[in-house]
Amino acid sequence: MPSTTNQVIRCKAAVAWEAGKPLVIEEVEVAPPQKMEVRIKILFTSLCHTDVYFWEAKGQNPVFPRILGHEAGGVVESVGEGVTDLQPGDHVLPVFTGECKECAHCKSEESNMCDLLRINTDRGVMINDQKSRFSINGKPIFHFVGTSTFSEYTVVHVGCLAKINPLAPLDKVCVLSCGISTGLGATLNVAKPKKGSSVAIFGLGAVGLAAAEGARISGASRIIGVDLNANRFELAKKFGVTEFVNPKDHTKPVQEVIAEMTNGGVDRSVECTGHIDAMISAFECVHDGWGVAVLVGVPHKDAVFKTSPLNLLNERTLKGTFFGNYKPRSDIPSVVEKYMNKELELEKFITHELPFSEINKAFDLMLKGEGLRCIIRMGE
Ligand code: NAD
Ligand code: ZN
Predict the structure, then answer these.
(1) 154, β-bridge pairs
(2) Which of 51, 179, 251, 270 sits between 20 and 30 A of 296, alpha carbons compared?
(3) Could you report the per-residue pLDDT of 132-179, keeping only the tens digit for each?
(4) Which pTM does this prediction carry?
(5) Counting atoms of ligand 1 from 1, which one is nearest the CA of 48?
(6) Is 253 exposed, middle or buried, given 0-12, 13-18 or 19+ CB atoms closer than 10 A?
(7) C-alpha–C-alpha distance, residues 116 and 246, integer Å
(8) Which intervals hold domain Alcohol dehydrogenase-like C-terminal (predicted)?
């Protein structure tokens, strides 16, 4: 039994003390896991745009001081009361939305919106006792989406941990714990394009390009990438994107540009930007009669979706999804196997690597729109 079981662990964590201010690497105390909780050692984490939104807190409720981070891979250090599925040494991917396996959603084949563990961005505490497991000199530091992976050790509800093949390299498969599964699933599980169809992808970051990868795997014949950042276009070619539209190059709305390119609209669209204008365009650019648009980007908290109801009456469908409709515990181990069997490439999403001590540089890269995913090596 590891000597740290039932003990408070002191380790390094990157604490966001205030909105938009650089994270500070602090020594934090991480309490032992309680009922249905697991304490894990994070080996690799990456940065997703959702971390940046909640760090900036411009369009989201501020919860500080907080330990951000939700895309990661780690190893179980110890388990709390009632945890039978996991044991120390197991390799896991923490996920921002959970699966209790007991509620109506978990029992439904259609939903991954677990009643108990669905994403909650405003909660900074564990659900068992409404307290934080992180502290500095007795002062609590809040959690983020139940994962807080910018810490060498973190405590996560067992329902938010996917147990994966221990042979899978955690420095690669960590990107499946959020962005890549989200984009891939948004296309494969929700948009479901038919072979030979046309698909528009709004936002060519890692999430959008994973959605494009889903379109390529589905046999889409045209994959139209839309982004305001022209630097993304070169990168996107590796992901099967066949045509590019930069809304800045056109005077008319991008949905009209796409309708002209596709004889009335695309068969499917997937929005991965988080911007309300792009969400509306992504919906309005699908073909009437059969088009389906899927929203993935996390919106500003006050955003309102405005479109003519006629766009729906004309038989366009609007959908949205968290985590690509995957159930974290039931489905993610097999997505990891797709990587192991070389059916899914993850290396091309990983454009940067940094030691934990330089985590703020990963925020700079994301803000500048440079690269896709940056892997942060913990313990360095
Ligand atoms: P990213 O910043 O790497 O990529 C976003 C891209 O969108 C950028 O290239 C940017 O230039 C582009 N963009 C921004 N506004 C645009 C507009 N109006 N029109 C066209 N392009 C525009 O971010 P990411 O990590 O790939 O995440 C993408 C989005 O997905 C974010 O909103 C993130 O919060 C969200 N997300 C959602 C889920 C989910 O489960 N629903 C999970 C992960 C991430
Ligand atoms: Zn559930």
Answers:
(1) 40
(2) 251
(3) 999 999 999 999 999 999 999 999 999 999 999 999 999 999 999 999
(4) 0.97
(5) 25
(6) middle
(7) 41
(8) 206-337
